[in-house]
Amino acid sequence: MNKLVQVSVLGFAVVVAGCASLETDVRNYTTLPPKTADGYGSVFVYTSPEEKSSLAHAEYLRKVKAGFAKNGFKEGAPGNTDFVAFFHYDIEQSGVRANVSTPIYIGGNSAFAGGFNAAQAAGGSSVSTQTQCTRMFSMRLFRAHDFAAADRAKGERPTPVHELRAVSTGSTCDLGQVLPTLIDAAFENFPGENGRTVRVTKPL
Fold first, then answer.
1. What is the per-residue pLDDT for 84?
2. How confident is the model over 49-70, as pLDDT tens digits?
3. How far apart are CA 75 and CA 170, in angstroms?
4. Does residue 11 fall inside a structural domain?
5. Sign of the CA dihedral 104, 109, 110, 116?
6. Neighbouring residues of 192: CB distance < 8 A, sequence distance ≥ 6
7. Which end of the chain has fewer CB atoms < 10 Å from its terminal CB, N or C?
8. Would residue 161 count as lying in a domain?
9. What is the CATH number of the domain that holds 86?
10. DSSP labels, 123-163
11. How many domains does the chain fold into?
12. Can you tell me the distance from the alpha carbon of 74 to that of 129, in angstroms, rounded to the nearest whole number?
């Protein structure tokens, strides 16, 4: 590969990388009261003992706390907070068969090897299996006194005041690469309009 072609390929890769974005569908269900001049109050984001030992989870927790802070919540503490939040994330992988239109090269050189000739290619298609991953982030918010008053020994469960679900589908299956941006998208319009799904696009 000559230097000119190398530079062209490198430039193309940089452009593609710079244009990468994440589309996320965010749905909120909320009974939160309107935000006051002092915000919504304080929130404590729960983390299990197992999750506390994960550096990756620590980064996701930081993003969640930043999302709350951006939208008018102060950080609370156990036993001294207005709200308690729980969040969950997951990824599902599936193979999707698709018809992909591709040029079938008859002979000669390709475009990156000097002078593509249209007569050397014919249109065609092939069937391939492409990996698709559904990346999910969800969060539930409870009033602290409701959560504390629920008798879990009797199977009582408090009613959340907010539920959020953010879903994104794409070929990137590395949750660590996608989840921080997914969390940003989830809190973009928080607490959002009750029952409405909004698509949020953010650079990845």
1. 94
2. 888 889 999 999 999 999 999 9
3. 33
4. no
5. negative
6. 26, 27, 28, 30, 164, 198
7. N
8. yes
9. 3.30.160.670
10. EEEEEEEEEEEEEEEEEEEEEHHHHHH--GGGT--PPPSEE
11. 1
12. 47
| Strands laid side by side in the 162-170 sheet | 73-75, 41-45, 83-105, 121-143, 162-170, 21-30, 197-203
The answer to whether the CB of 148 falls within 8 A of the CB of 46 is: no
The rounded Cα 32 to chain-centroid distance in angstroms is 23
In a domain, 56, yes or no: yes
- Please tell me the distance from the alpha carbon of residue 2 to that of residue 20, in angstroms, as a whole number: 28
Q: Which pLDDT value is given to residue 129?
A: 64
Rounded Cα distance between 81 and 45, Å, is 10
The number of residues in the chain equals 204
Residue 47 tokens, joined: 């983390």
**CA angle, 188 then 191 then 194, to 5°:** 120
Q: Which residues pair with 159 in a beta bridge?
A: none
Lookup result for tokens 């919540």: 73
| Domain, as residue range, for 194 | 21-203
Grouping H, G, I as helix, E, B as strand and the rest as coil, residue 66 is helix
Q: Which tokens hold the place of 72?
A: 């008018």
The answer to whether residue 10 is domain-embedded is: no
Angle at 102 between CA 100 and CA 103, to 5 degrees: 170
**Residue 168, token pair as written in the block:** 């994104």
